[in-house]
Amino acid sequence: MDFKNRYTLILSSFLAIFCMSLNAQNKDLPNIVFVIIDDFGYADSEPYGAKDIKTPGINELAKNGLKFTNFYANAPVCSPTRCAFITGRWQQRSGFEWALGYGGTNFQLKNGQYEAVANIHGIGLLPEKNHLPKLLKKAGYKTGAFGKWHLGSQDKFNPVHHGFDEYYGPLLGHCDYYTYKYYDDSYTLREGTKVIKDFGYLTTNINERAVDFIDRHADKPFFMYVPHMAVHSPYQTADKKPKQITKANLNGGNRADYISMVEEVDKGVEMIIAKLKEKKIFHKTLFVVSSDNGGAHFSNNAPLFHRKTTLFEGGIRVPCIMHWPEKIGKGVVSDQIAITMDLSKTFLALAGINEKSYDGINLLPMMTDKNNTVERILFWRSNSKARRQKAVRMGRWKYILDVNCEMLFNLEKDIAENENLFYQHPQIVSEMKGKLQAWEDEMDQNRPPFKVR
């Protein structure tokens, strides 16, 4: 055998051993399932106190896993929270101060200035190499997203360009659950970048797609993102098909419709649990359920004050449940203050990746030891025409600037934000306002190609 052939043989053997080692390491990676429910009320699952809604799937995860009591969405509306999760960073860095759609104002950077634009369909999150799905895919995960995207509807913004191997769902902020059309008649349903014609109730379809993904990829580590459109309006249920939605009738409905929609989402949670058990991988799967913001029209956010679109607790404090038998004990309740983008950092940590550009923290130490907590300071800002607010959470204290009204609450004693302590604690207010200003200065150094406010 000549030197060249011998060298080729040695190199091939080395590569084979390396690939075998890599495959063995990959098989040890835990699976990740993240179900995010849209506009989900804080008290609208049984683990968080629901009396009129049955959520056996979520119940099982909470009973045998961990429930957070101080978990927050990155924003009080959809797009910014979803952006923070995909990028792992404050959404302001990418231009998302508010949700894409009829409720916000969109600006594009032109000649160094931001100019208002009317076309919401031309703005979106451009892919970057450090976005969560891309990094997990690079680490050996099979990646799939099934549900609402709401980070841009043009092909260049599609989830498959952000690192998802598969995508099925509506691209815009809402749609008819049967015709898949936005209120302006735009057809939103896609499979990858392809327009797909489908039929049936959207939530059911998303549930079935998620289960099928697990069925096909149970032999390798996978990351599955299930961002349901439910329970966002329109309030359409699986057992009745109402008239075509318009901007005028979009929010019509009642509590019974809302309950039915929540329970259909929970059926999907049950289906995913059943499939994970069938494939004997439930024990090695981190399963997370949360919401992208506080509850809206027919939700129950008790005991929190207010609702979606505001920075009061009812707009940003959300349920979050984690289940992972290999690492998390049963029935654990954690008071750790956390936020959506912490999940991004945590999911990367599971894959052995420390992405330093991410703004969140790794929650694994707190997940596995409820007594292991860290201090957090969290910030929110909404500059939309709907409502101008700013807020800071620092330990037990919450500062809010609501237009021109300043408030301070002790959330450990006053979770419903009833007693304004602003004038009693000027030093705490001054410290929190200083930290808020520093955070805003950092955020405003960025010049993203667009801003949604």
Low-confidence parts, pLDDT < 50 over ≥5 residues?
A: 15-24
Strand content: 15-25%
Shape: globular
What's the number of extended β-strand segments?
17
Structural class: alpha/beta
Mean pLDDT metric: 92
Distance between the termini: 69 Å
Strand order of the largest sheet: 8-7-6-5-9-1-10-11-2-12
Overview of the molecule:
The chain is an alpha/beta fold and 453 residues long. The protein contains ten helices and 17 strands. The protein has helices at residues 3-28, 56-63, 78-87, 132-138, 202-217, 255-278, 313-316, 340-350, 364-368, 426-444; strands at residues 31-37, 66-72, 106-110, 113-117, 142-146, 166-170, 189-191, 194-195, 222-227, 285-291, 320-323, 332-339, 377-383, 388-394, 397-402, 405-410, 450-452. Helix 3 (78-87) runs parallel beside helix 8 and helix 5 packs parallel to helix 6. The longest helix has 26 residues, at 3-28.
